[in-house]
Structures are given as structure tokens and as C-alpha cells.
Design goal:
Layout: H1 8-18, E1 32-37, H2 41-44, H3 53-57, H4 59-71, E2 75-81, H5 87-90, H6 92-95, H7 100-109, E3 130-134, H8 146-153, E4 158-164, H9 166-179, E5 183-192, H10 196-209, E6 212-214, H11 216-232
Parallel strand pairs: 1-2, 1-4, 2-3, 4-5, 5-6
């Protein structure tokens, strides 16, 4: 598991600007979505081209968050990267940065039915959950995207970002969500990156400028608090 470090000076700046360390102090379940980014075989399986071993470490936390989100009346949305031969045309600048061999590995591995396409089998995927495909780093691209339409359809105004990799697809999706006016939180121990430095760099920058960063336990407590309050009414 990553050694998470939010710099004290960054917390100080956030408190000075907003009067508190966390901008998200409550979560209303029915308007909240847990967004699980790219937890597929291609990024999690041993020997896969983009294997991120830390992604396997966060599976229990993602499952706990999914359970808490459903219990609170929210939605769990699984983001699944789709690739294929046409990817080399509509995202040519990305594939130009790869060798032909590595480009072909991604195209074949990430297409439906490919060796890296499926969701990691230990994740608690349920029939009532939603799947949103994406073709680039951000789940909100291309626009208009199915992701934004899905959130609007279900009355979602708050998104909790988990998945792999913290510093690429999770960050890209989280930043776009905030700039499309969704209250956005990255879950510090629910995202995974190739190393601690990349992971913490993203969390610190996101916390400073884009949204909130909290832990799995903190988020579950926020979700459960409103469930308990509703039951007491």
C-alpha cells in the first residue's frame, strides 16, 4: 500500500483559503457516485504491459467503498478502457509515443475480448452497478461523453475517484469532473500509481487546487453518517 503524505504546508494553505482542512464534510448517498477507474487485467495482472502491482493492494478498499456507496443509495460506476485498431487514428499522438510493438500490445490487449480487457475478478461488481467505457485517459473525453450523461441521468453531483493509475486516468478523470462542476474527491488509499512519489504528487496537487482528498475510512464514515441519520428520522 502506498505511503500517503499530504504536505502540512498544503493543508495550511487549504485551511487558510477555505477555513477547513476538508471541503467535503458530508456525503448524501443518492447524489454520490463511486467511480472506479480502469481496474482491469491490463493494469493489474502480473506480466501485463501496464501492470501496477499497487492496484492489487487497493482492491479491499475499493470493495468496501462500493458496499458503503450502495448502502447509502449511491451508484458504483466502473470505468473500462476500450481500445482497438481505430484508436491509432483518433488518438494518434498517444500511439506515436510508443514503439510499434508496444502500440500493438495495447490495441489488442485492451479491445473487448482482449487479454487485458476484463475487470479484475476480485472486485465486487454487482448487477446494479454501471459500466462506462472510455477511450482516453479521462472518462469525460470525448465530449459529449457517456460519463457525464450517466451522472446527470442518475442525479449525481458528487464523485469519489478510485482506481489506477492515480497520476494518469484517475487524475485526468477527477480534474475534468471538478471542472464540469462536480464535487470531486480522490480517495487516497483507493487509488494506485507506479510509485509513492507519483501517487503523492497527484494527491497533493489535486488537494490544493481541484477537490478533496480523504481516506477510505473517512469516506465510509461520511456515507454511513447520513444513512444512520435517515434511519433515525
Amino acid at each position: 500500500m502506498h505511503k500517503i503524505h499530504i504536505k502540512p504546508e498544503h493543508i495550511e494553505r487549504v485551511v487558510k483559503r477555505g477555513g477547513k482542512a476538508h471541503s467535503v464534510e458530508s456525503l448524501y448517498g443518492p447524489r454520490t457516485a463511486l467511480v472506479v477507474v480502469d481496474m482491469q487485467l491490463y493494469f493489474m495482472g502480473e506480466g501485463q504491459p501496464s501492470e501496477c502491482p499497487e492496484a492489487r493492494e487497493i482492491v479491499p478498499n475499493v470493495n468496501r467503498l462500493a458496499d458503503a456507496t450502495r448502502r447509502a443509495g449511491g451508484k458504483v460506476i466502473w470505468i473500462q478502457t476500450h481500445s482497438g485498431p481505430d484508436s491509432k487514428n483518433f488518438w494518434s499522438v498517444y500511439y506515436e509515443r510508443m514503439t510499434p510493438e508496444n502500440s500493438e500490445k495495447r490495441v489488442t490487449g485492451m479491445k473487448p475480448g482482449g487479454s487485458g480487457f476484463d475487470i479484475w475478478p476480485d472486485l465486487d461488481f454487482r448487477d446494479e452497478d454501471l459500466i462506462v467505457p472510455k477511450t482516453t485517459y479521462s472518462a469525460f473525453i470525448p465530449s459529449p461523453s457517456k460519463m457525464e450523461a450517466t451522472l446527470k441521468e442518475h442525479g449525481i453531483d458528487t464523485v469519489l475517484i478510485t482506481g489506477v493509475s492515480t497520476c494518469t486516468c484517475c487524475e485526468s478523470t477527477a480534474r475534468d469532473a471538478m471542472m464540469l462542476n462536480y464535487r470531486t474527491m480522490m480517495i487516497a488509499d483507493g487509488c494506485a500509481a507506479p510509485d509513492d512519489e507519483l501517487h503523492n504528487a497527484t494527491l497533493n496537487q489535486f488537494y490544493l487546487q481541484f477537490g478533496d482528498v480523504q481516506s477510505t475510512d473517512e469516506v465510509i464514515a461520511l456515507l454511513d453518517r447520513n444513512v444512520a441519520a435517515a434511519a433515525a428520522e
